[in-house]
Amino acid sequence: MATTANNFIKAINKQPRYSTNGIKSEPSGWRTILCSRNKKPIVITIVNSSLFYYIWKCSSDGFNVTKGFVTELIKKLYSDIEDLRIKLYDELLTSLERNSETHVRNQKTTGRTEIQLFRVKPVKPIIDEIDTVLARHYGFTDEELDFIINYNIKYRMGDELNSSEE
Q1: Average pLDDT over residues 20-48
Q2: Cβ neighbourhood burial of 39 (10 Å; 0-12, 13-18, 19+)
Q3: Side by side, which strands form the sheet with 2-5?
Q4: CA-to-CA distance for 133 and 80, rounded, in angstroms?
């Protein structure tokens, strides 16, 4: 499992497609997080949540997602959350993959770079469901859940929320 960040932390099952001048390599923002196979669905689901993003944004530099931060926060958040069932995990990963696209950049120093990017707007309803389950699990009030979801909309979605693309 690994994460990349760009207004959202995206935890996925495998490294995104990435190549420079036709040579496959690892994106600079890629972080591999190791966990047991039985915990992987819950860990990936939690890392994709707005709650995780909010905690990360408030307690880090808001730019770098480090292995240590993810590992320590997951230890604190993970406590056999039964409601984060495989269904949410499967829906999330399927939707992220389906709503990804290859972005191409031509730079003087590195040449042609192709990277798989993930559009979050189509996945947002699943993220909201994950946050609802997390809020219920941790005993958040409706107002606290509303804050997390509205924080998501106001500060993370930005122009993507207002775009007409699906």
Answers
A1: 81
A2: middle
A3: 9-12, 2-5, 31-32
A4: 13
